[in-house]
Design brief:
single chain; 323 residues; alpha+beta; 4-stranded antiparallel sheet
Length: 323
């Protein structure tokens, strides 16, 4: 069984002989593409970008540097940006933005239904993108049928990310403040108790000299005082005075640290993210546009109509040869 000849000449003749059919199909598909474009909703893509500042600039170790100068880069390093990216993609950010902008109503979803919650996350998956550039800048984009909504989502997302990231550092400092305040309160109680004990011992045994080994002021002169238990009282006064002086010194150091942490506990004036480009409602819809849609639809019609006609002509030749 032989096969019919169907080379480039036959292909050219087939296409030339059916050029009217191919042209009509191409025009029809172009018209269908234009009609579909005109009746379908436009999608608009809003863009915003930001860079991350170095969190160490708000750290007490750099704000209260007593010795030497430590170089701190103005911009965050790769590790900080990696942590930021994990937060950017978190569902928590999406839920907060959805609640603030009432995206549930916008997409006609009920947040109490698990299926609708999944639909919202799927919508984010398709329309929400965060790209990290090689220079550690981040670009946030969101696609929606309403330009204003797309821009609001991008801007609110960047503000939410900044608030969450800054809140983490503030909460860590708040924990340190609580620990220091608790320790200082505990030391205050001990200092008051030791002060009362020292005052009672000095009044009872008439020990009014400043005797404290920790202060290195032991005197060779005879101290004044007396009574039963005077020697034991002298030892107790020295021991308690040494402990009290150490506690007072530690309390002063902890109080200084507490003041430092309280100074950096509120960093509203030192944002961790710097928005370089705020999103604005886009004017042009997301590609493809009307002209590109017409051209691509026409080319698709041209391609498939040509393939169909070539296959039909070939099999007709094959059937005719078999007969």
């Amino acid at each position: 069984m032989s096969t019919p000849r169907f080379d480039i000449v036959d292909v050219t003749q087939t296409l030339r002989g059916n050029r009217k059919t191919i042209l009509i199909v191409s025009i029809l598909t172009a018209v269908l593409g234009a009609t579909f474009y005109l009746i379908s909703q436009r999608e608009y893509k809003a863009l915003g970008s930001f860079i991350m500042t170095n969190p160490l600039y708000t750290d007490r170790n750099n704000l209260f540097q007593e010795s030497g100068i430590q170089f701190v880069d103005y911009f965050a390093g790769d590790d900080d940006v990696d942590k930021l990216m994990s937060m950017v993609e978190a569902d928590t950010v999406k839920y907060i933005v959805a609640d603030k902008l009432n995206l549930w109503a916008h997409y006609k979803l009920d947040q109490s239904k698990p299926k609708d919650v999944k639909k919202l996350l799927d919508t984010y998956k398709d329309n929400y993108k965060v790209i990290r550039s090689e220079y550690n800048a981040c670009e946030v984009s969101f696609v929606d049928t309403e330009p204003a909504t797309a821009a609001e989502v991008v801007n609110t997302t960047m503000k939410t990310i900044e608030a969450l990231f800054r809140g983490y550092y503030v909460s860590q400092r708040a924990k340190m403040i609580i620990s220091l305040e608790s320790k200082i309160s505990e030391m205050d109680s001990s200092i008051v108790a030791m002060t009362d004990t020292l005052a009672a011992l000095r009044d009872r045994y008439k020990i009014y000299d400043i005797i404290n080994p920790a202060r290195q002021n032991l005197m060779a002169s005879t101290t004044h005082g007396g009574g039963a238990g005077y020697g034991l009282a002298m030892e107790q006064v020295q021991n308690i005075s040494s402990l009290k002086d150490q506690l007072v010194a530690d309390r002063a150091r902890y109080t200084s640290r507490l003041n430092e942490f309280k100074t950096t506990s509120k960093t509203d004036d030192i944002p961790l993210l710097h928005i370089t480009t705020s999103a604005r409602p886009p004017v042009k819809p997301k590609p493809p546009g009307l002209i590109l849609t017409i051209l691509s639809s026409g080319l698709i019609g041209l391609f498939f109509s040509s393939i169909y006609l070539l296959i039909r002509t070939y099999y007709r030749s094959l059937i005719a040869m078999e007969r």
